[in-house]
Amino acid sequence: MTGGVSQGSSSMDSTAEILEDNLEKILKGEGLEVREFDSVPEQVKPVTLRKSVCYIVGAVIFNSKDEVLMVQEAKRECYGRWYLPAGRMEERESILEALQREVKEEAGIDCQPITLLLVQEQGPKWVRFVFLAEETGGSLKTTAEADSESLQAQWWDRESPLPLRGRDILPLIDAGIKYRRNPWFPMLQPVDFPCQVICQRLFLTFISSNGNTDTSDEHRLWLLMSSNYATPHPSLPIALSVNAFDTIPRAVHRLVKECVPSSSMHVHTCGILGVQHNGRIPGKTDGVCFNTLVLLENSEDGAEISSPPPLEGDAYRWHEVTNQSLRAKIIQRIKEESVLPVHSLY
Ligand SMILES: C[C@@](O)(CCOP(=O)(O)OP(=O)(O)O)CC(=O)O
Ligand SMILES: [Mg+2]
At the top level of its lineage, which domain of life is listed (predicted)? Predict the structure, then answer.
């Protein structure tokens, strides 16, 4: 969260307004600067592409006959087998530039992203950004154009037999079909914000449960806020991935464990609201900030809970969202799971 610090009641309103504006931005998939590490640069080791982090992009592209674009691999270890156009990001690339480069190199096709479809991760050492994209030009790579990137590209009807490099692409294709039939979350593109680490900005919510009623306007909703003084305004907490295997849920659980002593709480990582990356300066902006929607639930079924669990220490506090429209939006995203899925492969 950015902006000046203000004092007094009127400025309290401006603080609340700025906070609500920032929450709305995150909900819309927009980005916010990550300023939390500005005051403690020594505590944070920037990540470096292809050394401490590896990002992969993959494209699910359909033609008018609902066939999916596939490329035949030229690599020795998977020679002649078929896969989605996919590959590792290179230095100074944005995520979208990597997507378009890989599809062009491997399939000969120009493409535009429709939306991020899925993020798969095993911690910073392996993060795969899967896109639903559409063909905008170029021409299918033929065997006469075979090179080290691929042997050729073809449209696959998804039924005829095809020797695959890996069956891991089948659920990715299914996700593309499902999204085209029923876009269950708003289209989402990465946004250009520099970040030196891999972290999650937690949109961590707690919803009061008053027994059995299910009308959203009867629920109260709180967000966990950080009292981090490096940022001029109340800000959402940032969970840092601290090693190569630190997946998003692990980093989230660790932060919650730090501040919520209550053991009857279940932490549900709902999914991703936004992806912030820049990548322009190797070793300085190779990080990604995932704006992540998390729900803290009381694990005792049916318990009537009217307020969030107490917090340990003063690093965090609960902020009740009293703006009814904003509250309803947040509750709707949670109930409908209307977020970019993140599959954390342990
Ligand atoms: C890494 C994959 O998702 C496939 C994409 O990477 P490539 O092996 O095709 O890399 P490039 O040579 O850059 O195209 C498979 C995996 O196991 O991670
Ligand atoms: Mg590849």
Answer: Eukaryota
Q: Which ipTM was obtained for this model?
A: 0.95
Q: Does 194 have pLDDT greater than 60?
A: yes
pLDDT of residue 289: 97
| pLDDT score of 329 more than 50 | yes
Best CA proximity match to 333, nearest among 33, 55, 23, 41: 23
Atom of ligand 1 nearest to the CA of 102: 14
Q: What is the mean pLDDT of the chain?
A: 91
pTM for the complete prediction?
A: 0.93
Three-state DSSP state, 107: helix
Domain that holds residue 154: 55-181
CATH number of residue 146's parent domain: 3.90.79.10
Residue with CA closest to ligand 1 atom 7: 87
- In this structure, the answer to whether residues 169 and 219 fall within a common structural domain is no
Asked, for residue 83, whether it belongs to a domain, the answer is yes
Q: 252 by DSSP, 3-state: which?
A: helix
- Residues 200, 251: Cα–Cα separation, whole Å: 8
Cα 335 to Cα 83, 178, 184, 276: the distances in Å are 34, 19, 12, 24
Ligand with an atom nearest the CA of residue 166: 1
- Together in a domain, 60 and 39: no
- Could you tell me if 201 and 293 lie in one domain? yes
Q: What is the mean pLDDT of residues 117-127?
A: 96
- Are residues 131 and 213 located together in one domain of the fold? no
